[in-house]
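Hi there, hope your week has been kind to you so far. It would help a lot if you went through both lines with me. No rush at all, and the record is pasted right below:

***
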Amino acid sequence: MGGTGSGTPGGWGPQDEENARNQQSQTNNLDDKYKKENLISSANEPINEQGLSAAARAWEKHAGRPGGSFEQIKGSPAQKNAAAEQFIRDVLNNPNTVRNELSRGGFEYRLPDGKGIRFNSDGSFNTVLDPKAIK
């Protein structure tokens, strides 16, 4: 009878088991937040009355930049959203995509050509990324 596994002190008490369950639950919620489909949903969130998604709006902003790598997307908001979503899916599904952790908890995914997408620490979509400029 006894031993380190039975009760406290030095063993695993009931509160330890509950703490472990709570910790696992928090970890699962964190993992859910960063699941591919959740990231895509975040990028697809409409940002205006016309229904333009956050990703499509970010693409439009980048397409207007001199020297940018994103071509202008044409069509209705639904067509723009579909093109932006396809880009997000391409980035997330590419086996050569690199994920980088950012200093404030955010993260980005970059394709081999340097284009990418960035998310905030809470998993919300932030922007599309042009390749890094060589200085």
